[in-house]
Each structure stands twice: as structure tokens, then as C-alpha cells.
């Protein structure tokens, strides 16, 4: 569950997010659209705690304050960047296992393999991630975003570089996560047919 | 597993798969030691250990800057920042990873120093080696703190050294040189200098962890 009231973020003199109000319920898929530079990525990064807001009246995920409870927020949020970062010297399995090891819960290699199987990467799990194609990196990034069972999922253009099968896999996962009560906010330039709502971000403000 | 150990394991695995940091740093230290051997003719300077510490400091900071820059350029630093771990755990995991890499690099430098400068430590060479390893703890802590503040900036690879060298020079390096020099001259300053070295290390490791936590 995401709640924002009067949320501001700027970079120097440029106001990227201006007096933003946003509510996303559990089990809701919301798409955020907007031109390049409209503030979509900044909003997702701010919600993931990667960027600090300048000012706000309310900024909560699952009733935890975004700034004062950032560690708790990070354990609840799954984030997929537009260009997912990864260690090219590690295999896909090692990349995912490293991420899971940073969480308090014990997951193990079998669980990591299972997650890679779910995104169609099991055949390539021991290949170095540096040899993955763009679409495979996107699948790995998605597996990393959902592997720790987040209650809130933030996806920045998640279908970039994916083939039809990859897009279908991610759609099915998003629908399953929605049923499990996960709040999902994703940015996209395309229409997303399975979304509950679509919002338009224009020059840092929601229309 | 403790997140500090997870980060340390990752740091070593990434480096040992490519050796992109250790090998150039070891070659650079060889060049520094060779240059100093041929350019300094004063036997008083050669008979002391400053040359060893300068080589460890310069190439060690280069190695730390390399690993930090790699993390920034690939944006994997974002992955680390998104993990539900405290900032001090992130700092300690990266600093201890660098420390292990510095220990490997220092071992190579120490062997080169013994060979090129005809073992100035005599029978005390093992103790001198341990002192260098202890000094690496402080270099890793200050180097990582400097790298995490400076590498996101333009020219950060250079700024890291500019920030770290003055801090290390008058603390860890000075105490380290006093320690190893006292082994060469057989003076009684060794224990005081070693205590000072441990003290500086403790301040830099705890101070670095604290600064990482409050700067979040």
C-alpha cells in the first residue's frame, strides 16, 4: 500500500516531482505514463528509497515512513530498474543468490534456481550474466525484484527488451502477485491491458 | 549469513574471476619500487621502510578506487543500497572486502620489497609483514570512505586519493613507518607505534561505519 501527500523532489533548481498525491491499494496494479523527463523514474526511485524526497506531508509504504523507516521499506519493496544492474562476473544464479543472501530470511540455492525457472532462465542459470542478452538481463532483474516476496513492486518500463514469451511471463507473475495483495506501480509508454488504473505524469505533477 | 560476510564474499568472487584490480595494482607497485630503487641513492633512505609504505598506500588506494568505480559504473551500487541492510553493514562489508584484497596486494609488495631492497628487516621480516597487514585495515577503511564519497563525482578516481592520502599519511602510514623502522634499527619505539597503529585503525573503521550510517 502506497500513500503520498504533497510529495516534492527536485534536482538543483529543477522541480521533478511537484506536490504529488498518490494512493495505491494492496492488490492494485497502477501504470504511470508520461513523456521522457516527466518524473516517472524519479518517482519510482524515491519510493524505493534510492532518492530522498525534499519535502512531503505523508510518504508511506505499508504505513512505514519512507525516510525514517527506510530499512523496513527496502525489505518490503521490489524494484526493477529500466536498465537492471548486475555483476557480469557472476552467473545468473549467483547474482540472484547474492541478492537473497542480503535479506534476513534464509532462501538457499534451490529457491534461487526455482525463481530463475519461473522467469525462464533455468537453462542459463550457470552462465555468466555478462553473456546474457538484454531480454535475459531484464528477466534476471525481474526475478531479483520479486524473489524476496515484496509487498510493493516498483517497475520501471519492465517490458523493455523482452520477447513475447518474456512479456507473457512477467504479466502472469504480476497478476499472481496482485492476487497475493502486492501493490504494483509500473511505468510504461505503452497501454497495459491488465492494469487497474493508468495515471499520467506531466512535468512532475499527476493529471 | 551475516550481510557483511555476504558482501565480502561477493567482493572477492568478482575480483578473482577477472583479477582486473589485483594484477594492475601489483604491476604498478613493482614499477614504483623499481623506480625508487634506481632513483634514490641515499643509503639512509633505502635502509628504512618508507618506500614500502608509499608503495602499499598508492597502489592500495588505486585498487580500492577501481573496485568502487566498478560498482558505480555498473550501477550495482543501487542494488546494494536497495538491500535491507544498514549503511554501516554496507560500509564494513565493502571495507573488509577491500582489506582482504589489500592483504593479497601487500603480500606481493612485501615480497618484492624484500627482494629488491635485500631484506632490510633481517630476522624480523615476519613481524614487519604482520605490521603491514595491520596497516592495511586503516587504508581499507579510509579508502572506502573516500571512494564512496568521491567516486560518484567527475574525476572521482583522482579525488579519492587526494582525499585519503593526507588523512592516512599523518596517521596510519606514519605509525606504520615508525613500527617497521624500529624493527630495522632495533629501537624501543615498536610497541608505542604499534599501539598507535591499532588505535588509528579502530578510529577509522568505527568512524567510517558511523559516518556511513549518519550520512544516509
From TrEMBL, chain A:
Keywords: ATP-binding, Nucleotide-binding, Transport. Pfam families: ABC_tran. The keyword ATP-binding applies. InterPro entries: AAA+_ATPase, ABC_transporter-like_ATP-bd, ABC_Transporter_VariousFunc, P-loop_NTPase. Residues 2-207 form the ABC transporter domain. This is ABC transporter domain-containing protein. One of its GO terms (molecular function) is ATP binding. SMART domains: AAA (SM00382).
TrEMBL record, chain B:
Its main location: membrane. Keywords: Membrane, Transmembrane, Transmembrane helix. Belongs to the CcmB/CycW/HelB family. This is Heme exporter protein B. Signal peptide: none annotated. GO terms for cellular component: membrane. It is a multi-pass membrane protein. The chain crosses the membrane at residues 21-38, 50-69, 90-114, 126-147, 154-173, 193-211. GO terms for biological process: cytochrome complex assembly. It is found in: Membrane. GO terms for molecular function: heme transmembrane transporter activity. InterPro entries: Cyt_c_biogenesis_CcmB.
Amino acid at each position: 500500500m502506497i500513500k503520498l501527500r504533497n510529495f516534492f523532489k527536485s534536482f538543483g533548481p529543477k522541480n521533478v516531482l511537484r506536490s504529488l498525491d498518490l494512493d495505491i491499494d494492496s492488490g492494485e496494479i497502477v501504470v504511470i505514463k508520461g513523456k521522457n523527463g516527466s518524473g516517472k523514474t524519479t518517482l519510482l526511485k524515491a519510493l524505493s528509497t534510492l532518492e530522498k524526497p525534499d519535502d512531503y506531508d505523508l510518504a508511506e509504504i505499508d504505513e512505514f515512513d519512507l525516510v525514517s523507516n527506510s530499512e523496513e521499506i527496502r525489505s518490503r519493496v521490489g524494484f526493477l530498474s529500466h536498465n537492471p544492474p548486475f555483476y557480469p562476473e557472476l552467473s545468473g544464479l549467483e547474482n540472484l543468490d547474492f541478492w537473497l543472501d542480503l535479506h534476513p530470511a534464509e532462501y538457499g540455492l534451490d529457491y534461487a534456481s526455482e525463481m530463475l525457472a519461473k522467469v525462464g532462465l533455468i537453462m542459463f542459470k550457470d552462465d555468466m550474466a555478462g553473456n546474457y542478452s538484454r531480454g535475459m538481463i531484464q528477466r534476471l532483474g525481474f526475478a531479483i525484484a520479486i524473489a524476496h516476496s515484496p509487498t510493493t513492486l516498483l517497475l520501471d518500463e519492465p517490458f523493455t527488451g523482452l520477447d513475447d514469451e518474456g512479456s507473457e511471463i512477467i504479466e502472469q507473475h504480476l497478476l499472481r502477485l496482485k492476487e497475493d495483495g502486492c501493490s504494483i506501480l509500473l511505468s510504461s509508454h505503452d497501454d497495459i491491458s491488465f492494469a487497474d488504473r493508468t495515471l499520467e505524469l506531466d512535468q512532475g505533477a499527476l493529471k | 549469513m551475516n550481510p557483511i560476510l555476504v558482501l565480502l564474499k561477493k567482493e572477492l568472487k568478482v575480483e578473482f574471476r577477472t583479477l582486473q584490480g589485483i594484477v594492475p595494482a601489483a604491476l604498478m607497485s613493482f614499477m614504483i619500487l623499481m623506480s625508487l630503487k634506481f632513483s634514490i641513492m641515499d643509503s639512509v633512505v633505502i635502509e628504512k621502510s618508507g618506500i614500502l609504505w608509499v608503495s602499499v598506500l598508492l597502489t592500495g588506494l588505486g585498487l580500492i578506487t577501481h573496485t568502487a568505480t566498478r560498482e558505480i559504473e555498473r550501477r550495482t551500487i543501487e542494488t546494494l543500497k536497495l538491500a535491507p541492510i544498514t549503511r554501516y553493514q554496507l560500509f564494513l562489508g565493502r571495507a573488509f572486502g577491500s582489506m582482504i584484497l589489500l592483504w593479497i596486494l601487500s603480500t606481493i609488495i612485501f615480497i618484492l620489497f624484500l627482494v629488491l631492497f635485500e631484506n632490510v628487516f633481517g630476522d624480523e621480516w615476519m613481524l614487519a609483514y604482520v605490521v603491514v597487514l595491520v596497516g592495511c585495515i586503516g587504508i581499507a577503511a579510509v579508502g572506502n570512505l573516500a571512494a564512496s564519497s568521491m567516486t560518484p563525482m567527475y574525476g572521482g578516481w583522482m579525488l579519492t586519493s587526494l582525499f585519503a592520502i593526507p588523512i592516512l599519511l599523518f596517521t596510519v602510514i606514519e605509525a606504520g613507518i615508525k613500527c617497521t623502522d624500529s624493527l630495522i634499527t632495533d629501537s624501543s619505539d615498536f610497541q608505542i607505534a604499534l599501539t598507535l597503529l591499532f588505535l588509528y585503525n579502530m578510529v577509522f573503521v568505527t568512524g567510517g561505519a558511523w559516518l556511513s550510517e549518519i550520512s544516509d
